[in-house]
Amino acid sequence: MNDADRPIMGREVSNYVGTTLREVEELVIVGHAPVAPHLCAPAGGVRSGALLTMLDNVGGLNGGLAALPDGWVVSTNLAARVVAVVHDGPLRLESRVLRRGRNSVVTEVGIRDEGAHDTLVASGVLTSAILVPENGPPRWERPVELTTFDVGAEAKPPIPEWLGVRAVDAHTLEIDLADELRNPWGILHGGVVASLVDLTAEHATGGGRTTDVVLHYLAPNRIGPVRATARVLGRRSDGAVVRVEVRDEGASRTTAIAVATAATRG
Amino acid sequence: MTAVYPPEHHLLRDLRFTFEHAADRTRSRAWMPVVGELCTDQGSARAGALATLVDVIGGGLAAGAAAPGWIATADLTLAVVGSARAGAVVEARAQVLRAGRTTVVIEVALVDERERDVGIATMSFAVLPRRETNPVADDLHASPPTMASPTSHLEGPLLEQLGLEVRDAAQGVVEVPVIDWSLNSMGAMQGGVVATVADAAAEAALRAATGRPLVVTDLYVTYLGFGRVGPVRSRVDVLGTSAGHGAARVELFDAGAENRQMTVVHAVATEAPA
User: Is B268 an 8 Å CB contact of chain A?
Assistant: First the structure.
């Protein structure tokens, strides 16, 4: 069986952001994603959380393929800089392996806007830990090609609605751990965590646009609700720097820590 | 006979750090007096100097958390949010966020004497099997509260003492020799020094691109290999610039080791924080 043909369970997040991925040469993955209205911020442009999800998708697949046949990967940290916040699309996603170690894979990831003369949109690094899944690593027909699947013609909800985000206070947002937000291993998808961090930074800074994120995944979110709390550390000429802590409230533990810069107007 | 690390004349002594480690090995604190030699021309401590403080306190804490295994630094991130000027003392408060079978993650908060945030940093480490040559973590926690001797001090600006020379500011090309003064315990360029070299390269390129006296305030350093031979040479791609800030991707190579790629760094430079 080719894992590209697996049931859609666990791939809803990739499908929501619309990423298609293709292995163009050994350990080089190129993908595409649309600038779809449901991914965009009210001011326009794809939200940084969605861009981070795309980076996690393309870098995660590449890291996983690099880990074969020993195992598969889980994301451990993602650091990215968004340099263009207005996009024409389609977006091209790129990943190459920087280092394959015994326990981890480091992939460089980037996004370019093909509709805007290949302008750089985001650049970063995804690090993943190698582990051996209970049923063994997934099997793929190489070169790998992953497409989106049809889930109906209805328009997709915008990201805050899709996540079911609710405000707890001026610095805190919370979501439930819905099935369609889980990855193939049954835990909250790393891209969803990134989107929650993005929205929480925006919420805590009064509408700031996230441009830089360093995100460390510390533990899986299995139970929920999942709560993100931001603390503004300081303000600079490029925006407010915030620390965001993500907790699985049902498991009473911290599951991720992020440092983000949110650009604010004026 | 095992050589003493750091040797008598070494960066880590001359920075005059002092340390305090919690007995449970989950938290450590370190203090760095800010002197003019550590500051940029805008008057505040250079991001690379702060990264060196983070690297030392984070590495020591991670080594204890990974015991009996050993560690290799995978990455270091730093966001500077406040200015630390000459005469100030920066305190680094490090805590273990995760100590797993294969990785250790550390967070380091940087504050000044008035509890104002100076910055925040994280480090990730791969856990490795211990080798005979690795220091023993117990020794790290039993070590004296400072590496400095009574005469330790910087004899000139940090970049000068490292021997860093800017070859092409617009392209962000700098060159630095690998010298005993700035080696780590494995005989390669110390991790904080690697961050400092990237800081200098990004600063040169982003100042050239913007025409503004920007200083580096964010560093995301991904360590790929050691710089053992030298000179270490940089290459910079300016990713984007806007009013008052810019972003760059920096690569460092060990030119003396067949130009082996050592490090990829994403850097952001802004107007100097208040």
Answer: yes
